[in-house]
């Protein structure tokens, strides 16, 4: 299923959601963990944001955010 999100790579939570921010006529989509607030890369579509969350290589930058 294209909208299945993997658990958060930082805390393991399955409480993730896809979100959007709108700036005038431009929208960006990303996935965020509802527990530790890690967020995935911003993309042009919901499905691209979920795919990026599910397939990116994670590295911890010291503050708990992706």
Strand order of the largest sheet: 1-2
Main beta sheet strand tally, sense and closure: 2 strands, antiparallel
Please give the count of helices.
1
Rg over alpha carbons: 12 Å
Q: What quaternary form is this?
A: single chain
Distance between the termini: 24 Å
- Mean pLDDT, to the nearest integer, reads 85
Morphology: globular
* Uncertain runs: 62-66
Order of helices and strands: EEH
The percent range for helix content is 10-25%
Class by alpha and beta content:
alpha+beta
Q: How many beta-strand segments?
A: 2
Strand content: 15-25%
Give an account of the 3D structure:
- It is a single chain.
- The protein is of the alpha+beta class and 66 residues long.
- It is built from one helix and two strands; from the N terminus they run ββα.
- It has a two-stranded antiparallel ribbon with strand order 1-2.
- A hairpin with a 2-residue loop joins strand 1 and strand 2.
- The radius of gyration is 12 Å and the shape is globular.
Write the layout of secondary structure elements.
Blueprint: E1 16-23, E2 26-33, H1 46-55
């Amino acid at each position: 299923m294209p909208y299945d999100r993997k658990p958060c790579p930082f805390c393991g939570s399955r409480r993730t959601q896809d979100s959007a921010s709108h700036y005038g006529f431009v929208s960006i989509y990303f996935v965020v963990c509802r527990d530790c607030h890690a967020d995935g890369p911003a993309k042009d579509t919901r499905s691209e944001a979920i795919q990026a969350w599910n397939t990116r290589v994670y590295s911890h930058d010291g503050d708990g955010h992706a």
